[in-house]
Specification:
This is Helix-turn-helix domain-containing protein. The chain is of the alpha+beta class. It contains 4 helices and 3 strands; from the N terminus they run H-E-H-H-E-E-H.
């Protein structure tokens, strides 16, 4: 049980420390998934990104909502 509580606390801290706009790598860490899964979410599942001069950023709020919308 301690390990689970510790992991949950660390997850909350990671989320609170995250800036509003994240790289794909940061978004993957934030969501606890792989970089390739974030890429699949963007390319095939409709996760929206901001793309300015070839630099992609993902909004934390957008990612949170995407994950909620895809809960089963």
């Amino acid at each position: 049980m301690y390990k689970t509580a510790s992991e949950a606390f660390e997850s909350i801290l990671r989320r609170e420390r995250s800036s509003e706009w994240m790289t794909k790598k940061d978004a993957a860490v934030y969501a606890g998934i792989s970089f390739n899964t974030i890429a699949k979410f963007i390319n095939g599942n409709g996760l929206k990104v901001s793309n300015v001069a070839g630099v992609q950023r993902i909004s934390r709020k957008t990612l949170d909502q995407f994950l909620i919308d895809h809960e089963k």
